[in-house]
Specification:
two-stranded antiparallel sheet, 3-stranded antiparallel sheet, alpha+beta
Length: 94
């Protein structure tokens, strides 16, 4: 009989743990963001692969990309563009 570690869920349908919130973000240029997460990790997220999607097309403008801000634990722009914290955490380099 295999045993789960004490901290593992016995419910195989349980949701994975939530991604940590973003607490700071700064545009670096070339579609990259420097991020700091609530768990203390810092990373770099490359948003440029998303620029060809209509919802993110405005981010191609470097001046607009620089207007990034943090709200509700994730990165946002004035036009309503945002990325889920799960995406930022999973696809950032640390």
């Amino acid at each position: 009989m295999s045993r789960l570690p004490a901290d593992a869920s016995s419910d195989p349908g349980a949701a994975p743990p939530a991604a940590p919130d973003v607490v700071r973000a700064r545009a670096l240029g070339d579609g990259k963001l420097a991020l700091e997460f609530a768990d203390g990790r810092g990373g770099t997220f490359d948003a440029s692969p998303y620029f060809d999607y209509p919802a993110f097309a405005a981010l191609k403008n470097p001046a607009y990309f620089q207007s990034v801000f943090v709200e509700h634990g994730t990165v946002c722009w004035p036009g309503g563009e945002d990325f889920a914290p799960e995406t930022l955490s999973a696809r950032s380099t640390f």
